Amino acid sequence: MRPNATPKTRRPALAAALTAALAVAGAFGPAAWADSGTTAAPAAPKAAATATAPATPKAPAAAAAPAAPAATADGTASAAIAATLDKLSGGRVKVLRVFPAPAGLVGVAITEGPGRNGIVYMTADGSYILRGEILKSDGTNVTQDEADQYLPKPPTAAQNFAALDQTHSFVWGKASAKKELWIVFDPNCIYCHKTYEDLKSDVAKGEVKVHIIQVGFLKPSSLGKAAAILGAKDPAKALATDEEGFDVAAEEGGIKPDLSNSDAVAQVKANNAWMQAQGIGGTPYLLFRDAQGKAHAIGGYDPDTAKLLAAIGDGKPAAN
């Protein structure tokens, strides 16, 4: 990502919550703590106490059994922790590693798939989950340090660029344009729409051509709209229909969803899977090469279009 940029992005709720060392949100509901036990009916109120004979002294309580360990020596989760996460996520979340955390908590590195990773904290018996970041009194972000240590690293821009041949895309712009840009694009994404509007005049002038990798995941209508664009006789014209009719207030693209073209639907789904496999957590996601041929990525919306276009190589040999 370029310095001084403050890109904005639209992510699926779970992906956003599992990315960048944040705890899971959405998968476990809005509460900060979740009880893994079943919900019991409230107990009946006790009757008012009456005078009775002295109670027989109770025998000393037996010593409690030692708590089950939260993790094994190799960092795998205990059965209780694994069962709680499996139950509350519907089997979607898998444990990568368990490790000691501050205040007697257990840290759990989890994943829902490539690019959807995060840290949560649990009690050792698996009964409660705490989501959020832990900061030390000196301001150190403990959760970020743990994420750097225990979570898998996403693919680099170069690796994602090398995998572009696995996507289904179309070109928006003039074939003669020397500068090339690839954008992962959802038809209901407000920041994709802003990116489109910012680039429109430069595309029309032949300054840059854009390869649109159409995905559809943000809203229920996204898949049908993406398929309508990708399956059209002129996808670039269909994209223009979506963007020119974009409802900014509702964050809805203007094209009518169409799931009738099974090939187009399959291609959008394949793009969705590619996006997830490459660790791309939201849209828009931009890829390009500079004048030296080095791959760069921008995750999110950056309004500085002039800087973006200046950074994209034009295929000419770099000046000495």
From TrEMBL:
Domain of life where this protein originates: Bacteria
CDD domains the record matches: DsbA_DsbC_DsbG
Pfam families: DsbC_N, Thioredoxin_2
One function term, GO molecular function aspect: metal ion binding
Name of the protein this chain belongs to: Thiol:disulfide interchange protein
Segments forming a coiled coil: none
Organism: Allgaiera indica
Keyword Disulfide bond included in the entry's annotation: yes
Location within or outside the cell: Periplasm
NCBIfam families: PRK11657.1
UniProt KW keywords: Disulfide bond, Heme, Iron, Metal-binding, Periplasm, Redox-active center, Signal
Domain Cytochrome c: 173-279
Main location: periplasm
Function: Required for disulfide bond formation in some periplasmic proteins. Acts by transferring its disulfide bond to other proteins and is reduced in the process.
